């Protein structure tokens, strides 16, 4: 047993790297939760976070990558602007609609310049989002990166943002949202100072006792193992002759299939979850759907109907 444990320890020598994957997953959950809570508290609407991008970029690269984001607000601390938070046109339009009418319509955002009113209406939500990270990401690097930052003022553009921010690396998070209104989607971007995480701060990777560290590394390595899933839209049976006769450009009907017919299947073919087909940032994607409630069969649960004799009694 001791020898087997020693072998496992050597194989998990890179356990810290696996634990860092777990840290990234925790940051993603913290971002999702903080943004969802902000929308519910400020706008009174529920949203779904379809995806979270998390990367590090130098200032020049950051400005280039945010050049197409129309609304960028400054995150300030005692030394002035230290980061940014922003919205694409769809997210900005949806928030303005929610704040003024209480709902989000399926209509796409109109192409227009960002106004001071837009910034004023969107600021409370973005401020709540940033402040919420201190709670949802409590004790993590993400919380420390957001600590002390307040939404204050608007950048005229990504180019002028580069003149105001300090010249160092930034943590860039991009959250793709679904507003639940006819498939309408938007994006929230967040740029925070990229603080370095020391070994002493990696609580999930390094513990005070050797046994705790071993258990943590093992858990992180297992949770970082790849899981193979297949997104399946439809299954069909065809005669061998029909399969051999398939030609490029031939159309195969998929009866009873819709964008909500996607099944995520494991290696054994078992259905893990149901999903809806869509796209994120121009790429094909699926959204996990909640399980359908069981349907009651009235024919099984209803009592037998009384016939004329049962209803009136026998003569």
Describe the structure.
- With 315 residues, the chain is an alpha+beta fold.
- The chain has two domains: 214 residues, Chemotaxis protein chec (3-Layer(aba) Sandwich); 48 residues, no CATH class.
- The protein has eleven helices and ten strands.
- Helix 3 runs antiparallel to helix 7.
- The longest helix has 29 residues.
Strand order of the largest sheet: 1-5-6-3-2-4
Radius of gyration in whole Å, from Cα? Answer: 26 Å
The SSE string, one letter per element, is HHEHEEHHHEHEEHEHEEEHH
Fourth CATH level, the homologous superfamily of the largest domain:
CheC-like
What are the defining features of this structure?
single chain, 315 residues, alpha+beta, Chemotaxis protein chec, six-stranded antiparallel beta sheet, four-stranded antiparallel beta sheet, 11 helices, 23% strand
Short description:
By secondary structure, this protein is of the alpha+beta class. Helix content is 38%, strand content 23%. The protein has helices spanning 2-11, 15-43, 59-65, 89-101, 116-136, 141-146, 158-164, 210-223, 240-244, 298-301, 308-312; strands spanning 48-57, 71-77, 80-87, 150-155, 170-178, 185-193, 230-232, 262-265, 271-280, 283-288.
Helix/strand layout:
Blueprint: H1 2-11, H2 15-43, E1 48-57, H3 59-65, E2 71-77, E3 80-87, H4 89-101, H5 116-136, H6 141-146, E4 150-155, H7 158-164, E5 170-178, E6 185-193, H8 210-223, E7 230-232, H9 240-244, E8 262-265, E9 271-280, E10 283-288, H10 298-301, H11 308-312
Antiparallel strand pairs: 1-5, 2-3, 2-4, 3-6, 5-6, 7-8, 8-9, 9-10
């Amino acid at each position: 047993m001791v020898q087997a444990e020693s072998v496992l320890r050597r194989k998990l020598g890179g356990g810290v790297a696996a634990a860092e994957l777990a840290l990234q997953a925790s940051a993603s959950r913290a971002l999702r939760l903080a943004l969802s809570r902000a929308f519910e508290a400020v706008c009174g609407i529920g949203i779904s976070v379809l995806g979270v991008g998390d990367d590090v970029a130098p200032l020049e690269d950051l400005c280039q990558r945010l050049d197409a984001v129309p609304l960028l607000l400054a995150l300030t601390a005692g030394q002035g602007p230290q980061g940014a938070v922003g919205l694409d046109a769809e997210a900005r339009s949806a928030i303005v609609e929610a704040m003024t009418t209480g709902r989000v319509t399926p209509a796409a955002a109109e192409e227009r310049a960002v106004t001071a009113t837009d910034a004023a209406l969107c600021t409370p939500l973005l401020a709540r989002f940033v402040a919420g990270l201190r709670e949802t990401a409590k004790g993590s690097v993400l919380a420390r990166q957001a600590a002390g930052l307040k939404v204050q003022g608007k950048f005229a553009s990504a180019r002028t943002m580069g003149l105001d921010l300090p010249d160092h690396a930034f943590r860039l998070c991009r959250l793709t949202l679904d507003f639940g209104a006819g498939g309408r989607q938007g994006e929230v971007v967040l740029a925070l100072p990229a603080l370095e995480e020391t070994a002493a701060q990696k609580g999930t990777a390094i513990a005070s006792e050797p046994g705790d560290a071993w258990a943590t590394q093992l858990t992180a390595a297992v949770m970082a193992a790849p899981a193979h899933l297949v997104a399946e839209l439809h299954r069909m049976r065809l005669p061998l002759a029909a399969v051999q006769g398939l030609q490029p450009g031939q159309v195969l009907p998929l009866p009873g299939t819709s964008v909500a017919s996607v099944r995520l299947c494991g290696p054994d073919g078992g259905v893990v979850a149901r999903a809806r087909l869509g796209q994120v940032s121009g790429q094909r994607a699926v959204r996990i759907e909640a399980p359908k409630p069981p349907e009651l069969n009235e024919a099984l649960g209803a009592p037998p109907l009384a016939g004329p004799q049962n209803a009136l009694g026998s003569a």
